[in-house]
Design brief:
Chain lengths: 507, 112
């Protein structure tokens, strides 16, 4: 081995390594400090819950399944749909986004999304958990059940896989016509300013045990002063949540946070970046529906980790989410195939794959809330709507959402988010509102259709506005710094050669 | 000497090869090509995008034969490749000035 002088890129790599080392030292101090702090309350919390081995195994398995959704699932699903000359470009973009988000999630993303933000808590977490400060193998995270915890490391890595796939979904909208450097810079900014806050808004909830303890204290309070103090404590616990979670929006596994969020960011990108050169004139048929079918199937399998894993433990609700993910997807795949057969005359492979993905998207927010029959109906309904958007609406408006990120993920996500508000109704086989602030502890909350739909609509609108406007600003910033589009010559040659200096296929 | 070049339907290749072997023509060159003549293309639909595909996949075979074998060769290809449907293909005959077998250096008729 010979030693070469570091190039500019080498110096950048060294700088990153240095930064990581600083973080490691910080984390090491945290680990040495932790046991001392833990000793004092140990006696008081003698009955502190410990993680269940089955829950831990399931959460780690789910995390690996969700990673498989991105690579190779999504990468192949998207890759098969582009032309041969851009195959390596799409695969590289997805792989690189997954890797980059893995790094920033560890450094500051988890802390922003799932940390305590102090007075800013409804909007964003702080930097208290940056560089995984305080997260060692003894740290636990709350689940949705009283007295059940999982290791915070498992929660950290499970949520990391969500942060990885969401930005990777966006690249389908502007595939075949964006510079790799622009993709990387945009996703870095988008994850930081759009995804981490929205994940915090929806998923940063009070621990059920804290709520129950505060509620018990309130019930035990005898005189007026103690009652007031206990009530204030309960309000503080239930108020220290993301603002959309506090508004009562139901999103089991990420219909708003993941799909509407990525879908609208994709549409804005397709509009700002513009159409592919030759769009509407040249043949832009998918280069390999075989790859797309493999990718869609891997997505379906991985989605069991995504939806059933989102229950954070392995129990009956987990099984419900699993079954819903199965039946809604089957319904939607079949529904798209049949609609296409009737409308276009032929049942297509791309159609059934698209239907499956639309069904998976729609059932995501509903997976732990709807009953299986409700979920299947949701699947039947989502496909014709998405088919209408990817064919009729897209063609009449003329935007080039290359791989239909908006038509499938945003529209499917909205159908799912609103459908969740309907299907959670126990009268339709749903589980009813799970009310973690219910001080009687039976969690059999009431269902109010109008109030629930307003909450769902609020979450949808907030995501559309924050992600839509925020993404537009970030695209413009990226355009100024590195430029969004390659030259027309580079685009004609294909991004595989112009961006990466290689071909996906040499045959 | 002549080159007989034929554009045929892909699934007829084996029958054409058998017919040529039967009349003593050994060796031919095959290329996968696309094109169109009287046969129009078809429409492909990918989600909302409809593409009129006017170039259809065909097989081009090229066989070098002595001039007195040209008629037999054409007849063999015609009878083997014919389905009676539009799109059966065409045969072109081109003059061949010179031929050399690389291994031995034999020339013209001896090289075929």
């Amino acid at each position: 081995m010979t030693f070469k002088r570091p190039t500019t890129a080498g110096w950048i790599a060294l700088a990153i390594a240095g930064l990581c080392a600083v973080g490691f030292v910080d984390a090491a101090f945290a680990q040495t400090a932790a046991p001392a702090a833990a000793d004092a309350p140990a006696a008081a919390a003698a009955a502190a819950p410990v993680p269940n081995k089955g829950d831990v195994a399931w959460m780690l398995t789910s995390s690996a399944l969700v990673l498989m959704m991105s690579i190779p699932g999504l990468a192949l699903f998207y890759g098969g749909l582009v032309r041969t000359k851009n195959m390596a470009s799409v695969l590289t973009q997805v792989f690189a986004i997954v890797s980059m988000v893995g790094v920033i999630w560890t450094i500051y993303g988890y802390s922003l999304a799932f940390g305590d933000g102090g007075s800013m808590t409804p909007w964003i977490g702080g930097f208290a958990k940056a560089f995984m400060h305080g997260i060692d193998s003894n740290a636990n995270s709350a689940t949705f059940s009283n007295g059940v915890v999982i290791p915070e490391l498992a929660y950290f890595v499970f949520q990391m896989t969500f942060a990885m796939i969401t930005p990777a979904l966006i690249v389908g909208a502007f595939a075949e016509r964006i510079k790799f450097s622009a993709v990387m810079l945009f996703i870095l900014l988008w994850s930081t300013f759009i995804y981490f806050p929205i994940a915090h808004w929806v998923w940063y909830v009070a621990a059920p045990d804290d709520v129950a303890n505060a509620a018990k204290a309130l019930a035990a309070a005898t005189d007026a002063a103690a009652k007031t103090a206990a009530q204030a404590k309960l309000d503080e616990v239930t108020g220290a949540v993301g603002w959309l979670a506090g508004a009562g929006a139901l999103d089991f596994a990420g219909g708003t946070v993941v799909h509407i969020n990525a879908g609208i960011a994709g549409l804005v990108g397709a509009l700002i970046i513009g159409k592919r050169t030759g769009y509407g004139k040249d043949l832009m048929a998918p280069h390999s529906l075989t790859m797309t079918m493999i990718g869609a199937s891997l997505l379906w399998v991985g989605w069991f980790g995504f939806n059933a894993g989102s229950n954070l433990e392995a129990n009956g609700v987990t099984s419900l989410a699993f079954v819903n993910t199965m039946v809604a997807t089957a319904g939607a795949a079949l529904s798209w195939l049949l609609c296409e057969w009737i409308v276009k005359g032929k049942p297509s492979l791309l159609g059934i794959c698209s239907g499956a993905v639309a069904g998976l998207v729609a059932v995501t927010p509903a997976s732990g809330f709807a009953g299986p029959i409700g979920a299947m109906v949701l699947g039947f309904v989502v496909s014709p709507v998405c088919l209408f958007f990817v064919s009729t609406v897209k063609n009449s408006l003329g935007y080039d959402d290359a791989l239909d990120v908006f038509g499938v993920h945003c529209i499917g996500g909205i159908i799912g988010a609103l459908g969740t508000g309907i299907l959670v109704n126990p009268a339709l086989g749903g589980v009813g509102i799970t009310d973690y602030t219910n001080i009687t502890g039976n969690n059999a909350g009431t269902y109010d259709f109008a109030a629930q739909m307003i909450s769902q609509g609020k979450a949808v609108l907030a995501t559309l506005v924050w992600s839509g406007v925020g993404s537009a600003i970030l695209y413009k910033v990226v355009d100024v710094i590195v430029g969004l589009r390659p030259s027309v010559e580079q685009e004609r040659e294909g991004l595989d050669i112009s961006d990466h200096g290689e071909r996906a296929y040499n045959m | 000497m002549k080159i007989v070049m034929a554009i045929i339907k892909p699934f007829k290749l084996e029958e054409v090869r058998d017919a040529l072997t039967a009349i003593g023509v050994h060796g031919l060159t095959v290329t996968e090509v696309k094109g169109y003549g009287r046969q129009k293309g078809h429409t492909e639909i990918y989600r909302g995008a409809e593409y009129a595909v006017s170039f259809l996949p065909k097989i081009k075979i090229e066989v070098a034969v002595a001039s007195d074998q040209v008629d037999k060769t054409i007849e063999a290809i015609t009878s083997a490749a014919k389905t009676g449907q539009i799109g059966d293909g065409k045969i072109f005959v081109i003059n061949l000035d010179h031929a050399v077998r690389i291994r031995t250096g034999e020339a013209d008729a001896a090289a075929l």
